[in-house]
């Protein structure tokens, strides 16, 4: 590409930051956020969260990237606006809350109706089409397929690029896809163009399949645990079948994080008037798994102590290693089950202040005190730190990864 574009990215979460950095290699990019601290960090070339590749690029690469809280100014000067604001699931409305996305669309429509808008936030079926009818901008939808803490890596080496558009917007869709390709390190990335509802479906069905796979291996592990079998042997035996594959198969306390829980619930809602059994089962399976985990750790705590109530330690709230994010982590629901059963909970989480409270539970970052006080410790992912108290630790982590 010969032309440099002015791009505004709304949102500095892992989706927005990874795209801002990727596109700032060859374009002028302004990142917009309402959080002044995040904006300041970006302007100081610091990532607001843990992501190895974003941190490296900010520190070592030449990037035409600035951040601001002045949304109207940033939108008014943009050729392209990329929307990467959060869409949390609203349990009362049984749908994503897309108000933050529409707030951006309304502002862009007001100050720059000629700008191309690309929605990267996860949205319900039909949302892009509805917004295209409501606002004057060209609005595309391009789903993201990123892992938290490796988001830039996944944009540098994408599995595919998908852009949803109306037929008359195909040239604009090709332009945006070419910009993602230009920033990527991987060559010959598959690019798919489809209508916006189909692109929205790709995102929700893709994440629900991942949740299904997590749930399958977790239920396999529950079965093996209850029957006294070796989970690792069974997983190895079935995963060597190339149709199944030896990946994404490490048992856990359940699928969690920002995307999978809300996306599976949204897809289930989309199936309200459509026959299905599997999608409901995926959502229900995750609840069952977390309840099972709580029951088993309570058994261990009661075995180790005659006191009542027992004290259960939670070693890290994060979803996986090398992360500082525990938003909607599966262990938080396990904690709720433990509290409902009357257990006292202590949390060891270095990203939180020692002595503070998390959901009413004390944070104890003095590991010696933590391990001596707890009757049992749960760890979604095992860590060498726990070797000295292995007999107290309940984990289902087999491979020490994921």
Radius of gyration: 23 Å
Distance between the termini: 36 Å
H/E element order: EHEHHEHEEEHEHEHEHEHHHHEHEEEHEE
Mean pLDDT score, rounded?
Answer: 95
Number of helices: 14
- What characterizes the major β-sheet? 6 strands, parallel
Kindly provide the name of the CATH class of the largest domain. Answer: Alpha Beta
Q: What topology, given as strand order, has the largest sheet?
A: 3-2-1-4-7-8
The CATH architecture of the largest domain comes to 3-Layer(aba) Sandwich
Low-confidence stretches: none
Q: Could you characterize what this model shows?
A:
The chain has 402 residues and is α/β, with parallel strands linked by helices. It has helices at residues 14-23, 36-43, 52-60, 71-76, 99-111, 127-134, 151-156, 170-183, 196-227, 231-239, 260-270, 278-304, 330-340, 367-373, and strands at 6-10, 28-32, 65-68, 80-83, 89-90, 95-96, 116-119, 138-141, 161-164, 191-194, 311-315, 344-348, 357-358, 361-363, 376-378, 393-394. The protein has a 6-stranded parallel beta sheet, sandwiched between helices. A 6-stranded mixed beta sheet has the order 13-14-12-11-15-16, with helices on both faces. A two-stranded antiparallel sheet has the order 5-6. It is globular and about 70 Å long. The mean pLDDT is 95.
């Amino acid at each position: 590409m010969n032309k440099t574009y002015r791009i505004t990215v709304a949102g500095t979460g892992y989706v927005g930051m990874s795209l801002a950095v990727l596109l700032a290699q060859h374009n002028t990019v302004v990142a917009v956020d309402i959080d002044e601290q995040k904006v300041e960090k970006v302007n100081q070339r610091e990532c607001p969260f843990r992501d190895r590749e974003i941190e490296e690029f900010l520190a070592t690469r030449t990037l035409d990237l600035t951040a601001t809280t002045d949304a109207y100014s940033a939108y008014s000067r943009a050729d392209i606006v990329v929307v990467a604001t959060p869409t949390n699931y609203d349990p009362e409305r049984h749908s994503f809350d897309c108000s933050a996305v529409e707030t951006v669309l309304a502002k862009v429509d007001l100050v720059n109706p000629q700008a191309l808008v690309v929605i990267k936030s996860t949205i319900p079926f039909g949302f892009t089409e509805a917004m295209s009818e409501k606002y004057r901008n060209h609005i595309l939808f391009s789903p993201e397929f990123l892992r938290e803490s490796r988001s830039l890596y996944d944009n540098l080496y994408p599995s595919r690029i998908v852009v949803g558009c109306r037929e008359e917007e195909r040239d604009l869709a090709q332009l945006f896809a070419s910009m993602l390709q230009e920033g990527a390190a991987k060559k010959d990335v598959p690019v798919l163009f489809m209508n916006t509802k189909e692109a929205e479906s790709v995102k929700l069905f893709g994440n629900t399949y991942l949740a299904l796979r997590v749930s399958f291996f977790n239920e396999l592990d529950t079965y093996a645990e209850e029957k006294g079998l070796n989970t690792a042997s069974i997983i190895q035996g079935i995963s060597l079948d190339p149709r199944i594959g030896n990946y994404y198969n490490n048992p856990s306390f359940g699928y969690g994080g920002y995307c999978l829980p809300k996306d599976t619930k949204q897809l289930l809602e989309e199936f309200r008037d459509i026959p299905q059994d599997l999608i409901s089962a995926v959502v229900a399976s995750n609840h069952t798994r977390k309840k099972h985990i709580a029951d088993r750790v309570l058994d261990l705590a009661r075995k180790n102590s005659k006191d009542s109530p027992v004290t259960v330690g939670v070693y890290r709230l994060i979803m996986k290693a090398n992360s500082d994010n525990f938003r909607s982590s599966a262990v938080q629901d396990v904690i709720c089950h433990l509290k409902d059963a009357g257990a006292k909970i202590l949390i060891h989480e270095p990203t939180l202040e020692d002595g503070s409270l998390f959901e009413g539970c004390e944070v104890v970052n003095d590991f010696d005190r933590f391990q001596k006080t707890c009757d049992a410790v749960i760890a979604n992912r095992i860590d060498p730190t726990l070797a000295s108290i292995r007999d107290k630790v309940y984990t289902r982590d087999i491979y020490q990864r994921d």
